[in-house]
Amino acid sequence: MFRWLSGDPVSPGWPATLGPLGTRAGAVSLRPVKLRDAKDWSDLRIRNQNSLLPWEPTGTGSWASRHQVSSWPPLFSVLKSEAKRGTLLPFVIELDGRYVGQLTVGNIQRGAVRTAWIGYWIDAGHAGQGITTAAVALGVDHCFGPVGLHRLEATVQPENAASQAVLMKLGFRREGLLERYMDVNKRWRDHYLFGFTVEEVEGSVAEALVRSGRASFL
Predict the structure, then answer these.
(1) DSSP alpha helices (H): ranges in the chain?
(2) What percent of the chain has pLDDT over 90?
(3) Domain of 194, in residue numbers
(4) Which of 154, 144, 216, 210 minimizes the C-alpha distance to 181?
(5) What pLDDT digit, counting tens, does each position of 15-24 carry?
(6) CATH code at 101?
(7) Are strands 151-156 and 115-122 parallel, antiparallel or unpaired?
(8) How many domains does the structure of the chain reveal?
(9) 96-117, pLDDT tens digit by residue?
(10) What is the DSSP code (8-state) at residue 97?
């Protein structure tokens, strides 16, 4: 479900394109972020302010100012640098080749723990169509395969039922409540902690999604 891009990988599992998986909305795939994503990123983020603001960490300045086209190059530079160091995997979620969201694997740790967190967002106009679920399935399989991780974590606010549903469909377990865990929209918010380890996967997460009828191999 993955292939290397041109050139030698600079860290395990990076860079790579993943998928596609078929959903009722179309073909879902993941690819590395690119510098030329600036306009698509800005347009989507600004258009989706109301759907994203309640769930994302508090930032400096207004939402619009943080998501101008000019804000992308320095952000991209950080993402690319961390990806080269092997601490981050920043992907664009594509639907039939169109940018519709992002998936990021962060705080990658090696050694005795081999763990990371996974996060994602999608254009509200494409929500509820199985796109995010397929994208996360691809990301999880990549992390438990070429990236060589043993455990993935995700944190979700109790009110975010849609994001919790994505995780539970794929096999993540709710492990506990992190009280006042993160400053979100200018307030310290509780988050559920979800966990998933490689031993809990039979075959692959994408294969399980296909067997359940929620996706198809293309």
Answers:
(1) 38-47, 49-52, 63-66, 72-85, 131-144, 161-170, 205-211
(2) 93
(3) 2-217
(4) 154
(5) 999 999 999 9
(6) 3.40.630.30
(7) parallel
(8) 1
(9) 999 999 999 999 999 999 999 9
(10) T
